[in-house]
Every structure is written in structure tokens, then in C-alpha cells.
Amino acid sequence: MGIPSSEFESHLKDLTFPVAVAVSGGPDSLALLHLTHAYALKKKKQIFALTVNHGLRHNSEKEALFVKKIAEGKGIPHVILNWIEDKPFSRIQEKAREARYHLLLKWCKDNAIPTLLLGHHQQDQEETFWLRLFSGSGLDGLTGMKYRIEREGILVVRPFLFFSKERLKATLIAEKQGWIEDPSNKNTTYFRGRFRSFAEKEGLSKARLLNVMTKLQEDADFIQNSLKEALHQTVHLFEEGYFSIQNEAFEKLHPALAKRMISFLVRWFSKDSYPPRSTQVGEILKKLKTTKAFTSGGAYWIPQATEILVLREVAAMEGMISLSKLEKPFLWDNRFWVDPLLKNQVSKEETFLAPLGAHSFPKEKIISSIPPSVWPTLPALLAKGKIVSIPHFCYNIDKDENQRKFFYLKPLFYDSLMFTI
């Protein structure tokens, strides 16, 4: 039985248009394009079709053009995103997936598209569980892919997670629409290919597995809520983009919750899709019992008598960016949203946004309660290699303009609590 529009639409609540649909040419993504197109016509909304050409197979360009013909035949704008980097010799599928998400999310951000739809279905969810189980994943990973998750400011939605692949194919057959079968799906060189072959032979219970994943998700939700409460009671996020952890409250946490809190703080600073390894978190916890400052996970940890300061590691910070290129708000150093109007507040000399770092400036003119250890992590404006403005100090060599108002701190609960897509 195919998927009727009414059933599909029940999984598209609260979407913000325009929407981008990732389409590879397989039955899952083509069914997604077909049903989303029907929904968009009904709502008189705009959608775009995006195809990533990884260049890993000799006919990959032909497959991308196959999708283009289908999309444009429906009046849907279609874009081919080419992976032009050198191709890997190991972990091919993993690196291709990372490249795919990077290209899709970047296109959405560059084109102000707030929502991205992906065609992962029930079978993909089952395989994800086993893949993460065999790779030693923790509770968050075993809950599987998220139906809705925000990544880099883009809402990523998987409407098909509750539908079988058979129903997706039936939907296309009813529309007399052909599709492309990806040969890597049955290639036993890759885990997913081996698992599919095994699952077909053994007849694994899908209902039982989904029941297990549902229970795990309930447990994960409970722990996430506990972590949020613990963060509010234990951690303070300062407007200058650093944290303080209250020692007394932190020491009372259950060890499992303490580990999650450290992982959360590392991910808040970092752009990495994956959480830090448990061994790295364990090392951080061990070092926090000493009085010696150290760097780890892109952060600088400073244990003190009553609190622990957690700053951005200067060496890991984002480099210089020319203000002249700012056209829309962007997230600098994964901490501060920067208003593009900032470029109208600087002199005619080309000005760059960069970490304050070790750049010289008249410290005697600075009156601030910000700890000196935090100063190098602050954003600064440079022209001709010299500091011309430090917005968080309200310091500006040219005028008294308060440029701090153009910097907005990323919220504590951005999307760091969510497991990677």
C-alpha cells in the first residue's frame, strides 16, 4: 500500500517554507519529492530539490541528471551539489555522508532555506541502531536518527522514519515513476550491505526493535531533562562566551550526569557533529580534580577554589574574516551571532573580525569586570593589522560607537543536546 497524502501530511507539522528536499534518485527520496511537491502545491508554497553528486561512481553524474529531469518536469527548481574534494580511500561511506550533510546544510544557509527534508525510512532507522550498537554507541546513539533536529540553524526533518521502504516503492509504482537502485546498498564491503543481507535471511523482528528504540528514547529524554536542570543549577553562561561551573553543585552530581555535562560544554564550543569520546571526557574530569589549568576539546579549563572557568581555547578559535563580505547574520567561532550591519560602523579601511588573542592594545584604558583570562577569547576588529575595536569592552579608537550591540551570544541550549544526524 502506498502512502496517501493525508497520512504523509500528518508528519509535516509546523514546517517553515521554503523547503529543500534532498533527492538521490532512490525510491525513498523520490517518494519524498513526490509527496512534498503535492503538499506544496496544495499550500501554494515553494520547494527546491537538491542532489549531491559524490563522484564516487562512474554514473553518478548521470543519476544526478536523472533526478534533475524528474524535478524540473514537476516545475521544481533543482540544484546539483558536487563534492569536489579528493575522495577518501577509507571510511568512504562515513566521509561521503559527512560531505553530503555539509553541502546540503551550506546550500540551505546560503540561500536562506529554513527547512531540509531527508528521506530516511524505517529500515534505515533499524540499521542505524545496529550500526551504532556494534560501534559501541551510548544511549543517545541507540535512540536512532531524530525525526526533527536543528543543525546549524536549519530544521532537518525525516517524515519517513515511520514508513517502510515497501510503502515508499508502492507510492512510486502507483505514480508509474521509476527510480535508481544504489548498488552500495547490497555491497557487503560496507556494514549496511552486510546487515541487510543478514536481516533478510534471519527475519529480524522490526516491531520488537522499534519497541526497544522507543523505550531507549524515553530514557534518553528523561536524562536530557535532568541534564538541563543540572546545567541551570550548576553552570553560568556569560555574555562574553565563557562558562563558570560551581564546584559544590558539580561535585554532588551523579557521575553519569557529570560526564554528560562536560560533553555538553565541549560541544557548545565545538563545531564537531559528534560528541567527544568518553575517554576524553574521563580525562577532563580527572584533570578537574587538580588545580592546574589545561586545554581539551577546544576549551581552556581553569579549576579554582569555588568554581571552574571554562573558556574558548584561543588556538582553536576561528580566524580572520573580512567585514566587507558580510551579507547576513553568521555564527562566529560557534559562539556569537554577528549582525552584518556591523560593517557599516567601521572605517573605510578594510576591517577584519578576529580573536583578540595576543594583539596589543592599550590595556590601561580598559575598565572591565571580565576576567583577564577571558580577554584573548573575545572578538576584536582589526585594520592594517592593528586593533581598532574590542566590542565587549566598548573600546573603539575612532569613536564612542557601541559595537557590542552587533554581537549576540549563542543560546545555551542551541542544538548541542541533540545527537548527530
Describe this structure in words.
- The chain has 421 residues and is α+β, with helices and mostly antiparallel strands.
- It has three domains: 5-204, HUPs (Rossmann fold), CATH 3.40.50.620; 225-315, Uridine Diphospho-n-acetylenolpyruvylglucosamine Reductase, domain 3 (2-Layer Sandwich), CATH 3.30.465; 317-409, no CATH class.
- The chain is 36% helix and 18% strand.
- It is built from twelve helices and 19 strands.
- The chain has helices spanning 5-9, 27-43, 60-73, 92-110, 122-134, 139-142, 165-174, 191-202, 206-234, 247-251, 255-269, 278-287; strands at residues 19-22, 47-53, 78-82, 115-117, 148-151, 154-157, 235-237, 243-246, 294-296, 299-303, 307-312, 321-322, 330-332, 336-338, 351-355, 379-383, 386-390, 395-396, 407-409.
- A six-stranded mixed β-sheet has the order 3-2-1-4-6-5, sandwiched between helices. Strands 7-8-11-10-9 form a five-stranded antiparallel β-sheet.
- α2 crosses α7 and α11 (255-269) packs across α12 (278-287).
- It is globular.
- It starts with a helix and ends in a 12-residue tail after the last strand.
